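User: Predict G protein-coupled receptor's structure from this.
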Amino acid sequence: MVNVDDTIHLCILYGINGAAILVNLLLIWIIVMRTPVAKRSYAIFLLNNAFIDVGFAMASVLGAARTISLPNGKVAFIYIGQCTGIGGIRLCNFCESLQIYLFLESMMILLLSFGYRRYIIRTGTAYVRLPPRKVVWCWCLFAYIMISPFWYLSMESLRDRSSAVARDLRSFNNNAAIAWLYNFDNRVVAIALFVVLFTPISMILMLILRKSLITNLSTMSRQGQIHHGYIVKALTYQILIPFGFLFSILAWFIDFSTFESGSIAQRFIIVLGNNIFTLASPLINLIYLPSYRKVFTNSEISKRPHII
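Assistant:
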């Protein structure tokens, strides 16, 4: 049985992720059906990010959980989503670890997008020879492989409910799927260190690449600035999205440190910080990329060649 707080939690979660799934599916359709030939190399990054967002949203809905800080460095995951009835604790743990993996993967794809854009405008001209699409797919595949060990570590660090946490969770429904982890487990420490280091380092690299992009754009012709300016703007706004995750980590840290403990902090990391980017990312692309925005304003996309 779920209580009133759980119901509100699920309603907000379903609302955010339901909208995210619909918007991302729309973006995927537009990318597949309406992307001009000259833009298809860069569209691979957009397509990967859209699929990542859909996967994250589905995992978040199925594996909805409330996190609770317990004594002796333990954290419990009380699964209130549909994973309990569909696949039990295995599916719930899979969904929880998948969210961490996909968030990190989204950061990798965004970083690659900046690198690709910097490579494209290196000559200072609007039209350049684009990398083959196979090469771009290989970059994305490498990103998936590089992050995958942390998915495995995350899965292995989540443990089934046992006597180690049973005493602290007597008030919860015995039918609920409950997993827990030990904060000082080597696997948890490895994941935490990677997330804590990788997220700010990636954002710093993106800001450096953004500054380089803007410098190059200022030396380009007006036509070149128009070609690339919208993309740089969209990428700039996407840099801000990971801040939601960082704020959620801060809320969890405050709760764990017992400075302020309560349901709001325990749910904040799941509801807001981890899910808002799945909706914000496709909206940014639909709003700021002219080729896709024109789908909503014109019956046919302009025939002029573009570089994206």
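The CA atoms of residues 120 and 128 lie 7 Å apart.
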